[in-house]
């Protein structure tokens, strides 16, 4: 009889026969299976690389322009990534942070001044609020960022990113303040305007804020700022929390 067949018969007999021989063979088979599974998992992990994303290496203050020294690329497990991350440092260098970013934080597009942030802030509540001054929601236009120089510049530091505000002005011929736009969302409370966009610096113009509004009320605000002093009234959730409404 062939030797291989004999060995197979011995194993079969041992498996069917009670006693420690059977137990030992079963344990060996389980051990071999576990080793193979561990090797397969290790090989899978080695072949699958985590994606590289932009990570802050130091604190980036709100209103600061991101530099190449502020960020780096690191591999992060896919299940730990927030939505809207960046895979190149070039995508964030030169952008303005709207809120402080901590070291080792993974910033998303909502942390920087841009169209994505404007779309996020100008939500349905903003559109509905501004319908009071517009005939249809379609007339409001896309989300827009508009700078406002406050008549009282000392009030700017009281505003936080994301605050909801109403823009008002004064007319000597009107008994009450005139509402220019409602439902605006604060993006930055201090900024400096430059050619082609906005930037933050040590020489920021005090009292100039950046807010997000639909296009139509944003144009009204911009036009009013040319001839009238402007102020903002804090509304929304923070005003309610402080007992201001």
TrEMBL record:
The chain crosses the membrane at residues 29-47. InterPro entries: SAF. The keyword rRNA-binding does not apply. Residues 51-113 form the SAF domain. Pfam families: SAF. Keywords: Membrane, Transmembrane, Transmembrane helix. It comes from the Bacteria. SMART domains: SAF. This is Putative Flp pilus assembly protein CpaB.
